[in-house]
C-alpha cells in the first residue's frame, strides 16, 4: 500500500477504504510517513470531505493508535461528558457530582484550557493538593467507591490525533467537519465510557459560530458514537455570552460550589440538568427526561450533590475545608471594576472577548507552555437583557499583576454593547441530537 495512491484517491474525490485509513494512521503515528504527505491528504480531505464510513474508520483508527482505557472493572454504567469549549463553562464540576449521586459512574478524562477556553483540569487544580494525575487503578477504584473520578488525559491517549491536530494547525485544515468530529470522538472512545453526552457550544465564544455549523458537528459526532457502539447524545447550547457569571479557574470553582448548594446561576443549573437528563435516561437511571430532571434538581435541593463534591475533592487530595470555604482559593492581589458607560439594556456581551480579557488578566494560556494564574479572572454582575444605569458596575476583574489587570479591563470594556430598548434573551438550548435523529 502506498501513501501516494491514498492521497490521489481522496484528491480525486474517491472513497478511502478502512484498510487505507488504518494504514496511514498507523504508519504516520509510528513516524513512517512524512508530514508533507499527510499534509497533502489533510488538504484533500478538507476540500473533498469524508463520508460516514470514512469518518468512523478514521475515528476508530485514531482511538486505537494508543492506550484505550478499559472500564470493565467498574460496576455499573459509565458515562463521560464533553464540551466543545466555551467561556465560563464549568458544567463538569456541577454535573459529575449530581450524576454520581444518582448512580451514574462518572469516569471522566479531561484536558487543560488553551486560549480563551477553560479546562476542567486547571479548575480542579485550584484546590491545593488536588491530584489530576491518577493511576488507572486509582481512577477505577475512585469511580467504584465514590461514583466519580476526573483525571488528566494520559500521554498516550489517541496519539495519532495529537500528531494530526498539530499538522492541521499549521496547514490551515482545522476547520473540516470530519476532522473535527473524529478528533473529538477518538479521545472519548479511547476513554472507554458506555455513554457519552456532548455539549456543542454555538455563538461568539464557541468554535462553531452558527447554529447550522453546530448542528452539523453534533450530528456527525452522535453518528460516530453510535457507530462505535456508544450511547451518544449532543445538546447544542448557547455561548454567545459566558455561561454563569464567573470566568477564571478558582472563580468558576466557587460558582460551581454555589450551584451545588442550590444558589448558582440559572443558566448553569439548567444546562447541567439538560445534559444530565440525557445521561440518566441513557444509563437507565430514569425512564423519562422529566423524571431525570426532577432527580437531578433534587440532588441540589437536598445537598447530596454538594456532599458528593466534598467526597470527590478529598479523595483526590484536596481538603474539605476548601470546598466548605471556597473563598480561600482566591489569591488575587488586585481587583478592579468596569462600569456601564450609559443607561440602557445590555444588548450583547461578546463571549470570546470576555474569555480573552480573562486570559489577559493571567487566567488563561496563550500557548501550551504558558503558566496560568488560577485566581485571575472576571465575575460579571449583569447578563444580556439586564437593565443598567450609567456608572453601574458591570463586572469585577481579578489579577496579580497591575499591568495585566489594566489591559484586561480595557479589553473587557469593549465586549459590551447596549440598547435603549429591551433585548430578548437567546435560548440556552438550541437543540438536541440523539441517535434517533441520525
Automatic annotation (TrEMBL):
<keyword id="KW-0808">Transferase</keyword>
<keyword id="KW-0328">Glycosyltransferase</keyword>
<dbReference type="InterPro" id="IPR000053">
    <property type="entry name" value="Thymidine/pyrmidine_PPase"/>
</dbReference>
<comment type="subunit">
    <text>Homodimer.</text>
</comment>
<dbReference type="Pfam" id="PF07831">
    <property type="entry name" value="PYNP_C"/>
</dbReference>
<dbReference type="InterPro" id="IPR017459">
    <property type="entry name" value="Glycosyl_Trfase_fam3_N_dom"/>
</dbReference>
<dbReference type="InterPro" id="IPR036320">
    <property type="entry name" value="Glycosyl_Trfase_fam3_N_dom_sf"/>
</dbReference>
<feature type="domain" description="Pyrimidine nucleoside phosphorylase C-terminal">
    <location>
        <begin position="345"/>
        <end position="419"/>
    </location>
</feature>
<dbReference type="InterPro" id="IPR035902">
    <property type="entry name" value="Nuc_phospho_transferase"/>
</dbReference>
<comment type="function">
    <text>Catalyzes phosphorolysis of the pyrimidine nucleosides uridine, thymidine and 2'-deoxyuridine with the formation of the corresponding pyrimidine base and ribose-1-phosphate.</text>
</comment>
<dbReference type="InterPro" id="IPR000312">
    <property type="entry name" value="Glycosyl_Trfase_fam3"/>
</dbReference>
<dbReference type="InterPro" id="IPR017872">
    <property type="entry name" value="Pyrmidine_PPase_CS"/>
</dbReference>
<dbReference type="InterPro" id="IPR036566">
    <property type="entry name" value="PYNP-like_C_sf"/>
</dbReference>
<protein>
    <recommendedName>
        <fullName>Pyrimidine-nucleoside phosphorylase</fullName>
        <ecNumber>2.4.2.2</ecNumber>
    </recommendedName>
</protein>
<dbReference type="GO" id="GO:0016154">
    <property type="term" value="F:pyrimidine-nucleoside phosphorylase activity"/>
</dbReference>
<dbReference type="InterPro" id="IPR013102">
    <property type="entry name" value="PYNP_C"/>
</dbReference>
<dbReference type="InterPro" id="IPR018090">
    <property type="entry name" value="Pyrmidine_PPas_bac/euk"/>
</dbReference>
<dbReference type="Pfam" id="PF02885">
    <property type="entry name" value="Glycos_trans_3N"/>
</dbReference>
<dbReference type="Pfam" id="PF00591">
    <property type="entry name" value="Glycos_transf_3"/>
</dbReference>
<comment type="similarity">
    <text>Belongs to the thymidine/pyrimidine-nucleoside phosphorylase family.</text>
</comment>
